[in-house]
Amino acid sequence: MKFFALIVLIAGVVANKRFDKHQVLTLYPTTPEHLSFIQDLENDNNIVDFWSPDDATSVKINEKVDVRFSSAVLGNIKMKLQEQKMDYEVKIANLQQLIDEQLDLKQMRASKNGSYDYNVYHTYDEIQQWIADTANQYPNLARKSFFATSTEGRNVDMLTIGKSTDKPIFLIDCGVHAREWISPAFCQCFINRMLSQYGVDPQVTRMMDEMTWMIIPLLNVDGYEYTWANDRMWRKTRSKYDTFCTGVDANRNFDINWSGEGASTEPCSNTYCGPSVESEPVVKALSDIIRKYKGNIQGYIAFHSYSQVFVYPYSYAYEDTENAAQLNDVSSRAASAIQQTTSKIYTFGPGYESMYLVSGGSKDWAYQMGVPLSYTIELRDTGKYGFLLPESQIDGTCQEMFQAMIVLAEEAITNT
Ligand SMILES: [Zn+2]
Predict the structure, then answer these.
(1) Three-state helix/strand/coil letters over the chain
(2) Of 378, 391, 400, 411, which is the active-site residue?
(3) Which domains does the chain have, with CATH numbers?
(4) Which end of the chain has less neighbouring CB within 10 Å, N or C?
(5) Which stretches of the chain score pLDDT less than 50?
């Protein structure tokens, strides 16, 4: 396993990693034997990459599993699946083709000038420039502030938006997992709509008047940059605590049942919890801000993809929060608002039920710190494109999730 990781490491330095004939298969385990077969698959980034759930240990019988296999192992895997009599389907037949399509579009656009395009994916540099430009464009409604310096020395910025800066806070972060590109894209279009529609749309005006929105449009900047330059499938941060494997799953690095079930202590795992709590600078910064404004934060959302789910605490244990009924009710209304907007179906529930066990995740920690409305929201899609959601779906995702945000904001406003 480490041998392959080393190859990835070397290849990563030289050129953008290719995924020719890599396939994403959806597996349908129905027996304990199927389950152990899947769990025995090595969770190596080069050989087997769990897309949903995040790792092999979270797989359950009678629940579908999306896994990426490299071309080198694919034939063997399919043979074994047939031997096991496990049903599967090819979800993505050639991953590189989807990646090329995204990057081709990027090259086509490079020559074009004009206003910022919210319906495309942007690089780290472009997002940084956009944050600065946005703060300049709306000096009375938006303020840019330094949030953190990443492991590799990049700036992470925060935009605080709202009519005033001392209202109850709604805290949002996007892009904690690097390959989930739709997440930072959503943060950008959400901020743009809030700023451009202030004083025009009564709902936006109310949201901006009654709450102070602290938004980190791109949290895992190192990982994100790496997805553009080296490996589109990168998920973790870029900290190095191990000779062979790089990165920590920032959403396993918070101080809530840290290193417990649903997190890995193996540095090569995609769900590696890190060497210690808050080892990652961006996690430390987010934890600090939640500590700093403790008692004033009414809402917290971490945007992820994919699966279309409103996930509320707890994820680290089979346990419900005191306000579980409220969280369930708000999710239900938000999901209805989405369905009425774009007909997309979002499901909802406590993490232990709607997803799988996760220890050290941000929304459990935020809830524990007194944030009543604490969510992880998994954006589009349900697996057809997975992390490679086409740019043509950014707008629809923005439209539907904005309607959900109106529901969540109203709950936060009336809660205070
Ligand atoms: Zn994620």
Answers:
(1) CHHHHHHHHHHHHHCCCCCCCCEEEEEECCCHHHHHHHHHCCCCCCCEEEEECCCHHHCCCCCCEEEEECHHHHHHHHHHHHHCCCEEEEEECCHHHHHHHHHHHHHHHHCCCCCCCCCCCCCHHHHHHHHHHHHHHCCCCEEEEEEEECCCCCEEEEEEECCCCCCCEEEEEECCCCCCCHHHHHHHHHHHHHHHCCCCCHHHHHHHHHCEEEEECCCCHHHHHHHHHCCCCCCCCCCECCCCCECCCHHHCCCCCCCCCCCECCCCCCCECCCCCCCCHHHHHHHHHHHHCCCCEEEEEEEEECCCEEEECCCCCCCCCCCHHHHHHHHHHHHHHHHHHHCCCCEEEEHHHHCCCCCCCHHHHHHHCCCCEEEEEEECCCCCCHHHCCHHHHHHHHHHHHHHHHHHHHHHHHHC
(2) 378
(3) 17-101 (3.30.70.340), 124-414 (3.40.630.10)
(4) C
(5) 1-4, 6-14
Q: How far is the CA of 167 from the centre of ligand 1 (A)?
A: 29
Residue 177 alpha carbon to ligand 1 centre in Å: 5
pTM above 0.90, yes or no: yes
Which pLDDT belongs to residue 261?
Answer: 93
pLDDT the model gives residue 9: 47
- What is the distance in A from the centroid of ligand 1 to the CA of 84? 30
Is 378 annotated in the active site? yes
**245-298 per-position pLDDT tens digit:** 999 999 999 999 999 999 999 999 999 999 999 999 999 999 999 999 999 999
pLDDT tens digits, one per residue of 165-204: 999 999 999 999 999 999 999 999 999 999 999 999 999 9
